[in-house]
Write a structure and sequence with these properties.
By secondary structure, the chain is mainly α. The protein has 14 helices and 2 strands; from the N terminus they run αββααααααααααααα. Strand 1 (about 30-35) and strand 2 form a beta hairpin. The longest helix is centred in the middle third of the chain and has 22 residues, at about 105-125.
C-alpha cells in the first residue's frame, strides 16, 4: 500500500509537520484480513495509541543510557565492518547490479548505516509533544557523543545525518528546547563530520585516533570511485598507478 507524499504546507505548525509524517500509520485502521476461503479470518480494528500509552513506550527508550545504546550499536557494526574484504573495495562494484554477490559486506554495512539513521528519525518523530521530541533529540545527541568516544564514526555519521534530515531539522520548536550543552555537543560533532573540504576534519581526526576504530566507510568508497574513474580497472592486473592509489 502506498500513500502519496503530502506537500509541506506554508505556515504549518510543528505539530502539523510531525502528524504528516505519521499519516501512513493511520492507513491500517479498521483492516480486515481474509482467510483462504474468502471469509474474514482476523478483524483488526485499532487506532493510534493514546498519548499516555504512547509516551510510556517512548520513555522506555529514554531510560536506556546513551552509552548502552552506543556500545550495542558498535557491537552490531564491528562484525560487519570486519568482514569487508580488500577485493570488495577494489572492485568498486557496490553500486552495480551484482553488488549483493560481489560486495555483500559493503552492502550490509551500508544497510547498517541506513537502519541507524532511519531509526533515529522514527524515534524523534514518534514523540507526541514538543517537549518529548526535544528529550529524545537530546538523548540521540548524547548517543552520538558516546559513539564518537567509542571511535564508531560510521554510526556517528548515521546519527548526525538523521539529525540533518529535513524531517528532523525543520522541527524548530524542538531544537529550541535543547539544553545549551546538548546543542554545543551537536555543533562540535557536526563540525567534525562536516563534508567541507572533502571531510578534511574527519580525515585528520582519523589519522590521530587510537585503534580500534570503525571508520565512516562512505568517505573511502567515494575516494575509491574517484580512483576508479581516473585509473579504471582493465579486468586483469591493475596498473601501477591504480594499485598505489587504492592501497593508500
Amino acid at each position: 500500500m502506498t500513500h502519496p507524499h503530502k506537500p509541506l504546507k506554508q505556515n504549518s505548525s510543528e505539530e502539523d509537520l510531525v502528524s504528516d509524517d505519521l499519516t501512513d500509520l493511520a492507513l491500517f485502521k479498521n483492516m480486515t484480513i481474509k482467510g483462504p476461503n474468502g471469509q474474514d479470518k482476523v478483524d483488526i480494528r485499532w487506532t493510534l495509541p493514546r498519548l499516555k500509552t504512547f509516551d510510556a513506550v517512548v520513555f522506555d527508550m529514554l531510560r536506556v543510557m546513551p552509552e548502552h545504546f552506543a556500545s550495542q550499536i558498535t557491537l552490531m557494526d564491528y562484525p560487519v565492518f570486519k568482514n569487508i574484504t580488500a577485493e570488495e573495495l577494489s572492485s568498486c562494484a557496490w553500486s552495480g547490479k551484482d553488488k549483493n554477490n560481489v560486495c555483500p559486506n559493503i552492502v550490509a554495512f551500508t544497510r547498517r548505516f541506513n537502519h541507524v539513521s532511519f531509526w533515529v528519525v522514527k524515534e524523534i518523530l514518534s514523540g507526541q509533544t514538543v517537549k518529548i521530541r526535544a528529550e529524545i533529540l537530546g538523548h540521540f545527541i548524547k548517543i552520538a557523543k558516546k559513539l564518537s568516544d567509542l571511535n564508531n564514526f560510521h554510526s556517528l555519521l548515521a546519527v548526525i545525518s538523521a539529525l540533518h534530515s529535513a524531517s528532523v531539522y525543520r522541527l524548530t520548536k524542538t531544537w529550541n528546547l535543547l539544553h545549551k550543552k546538548e546543542r554545543s555537543t551537536y555543533e562540535k560533532l557536526s563540525e567534525l563530520v562536516s563534508d567541507d573540504d572533502n571531510r578534511q576534519r574527519l580525515r585528520e581526526h582519523l589519522n590521530n585516533v587510537r585503534l580500534p576504530c570503525v571508520p565512516y566507510l562512505g568517505m573511502y568508497l567515494q575516494d575509491l570511485i574517484y580512483i576508479d574513474v581516473a585509473h579504471p580497472s582493465t579486468g586483469g592486473l591493475d596498473s601501477e598507478n591504480r594499485s598505489i592509489k587504492v592501497s593508500t
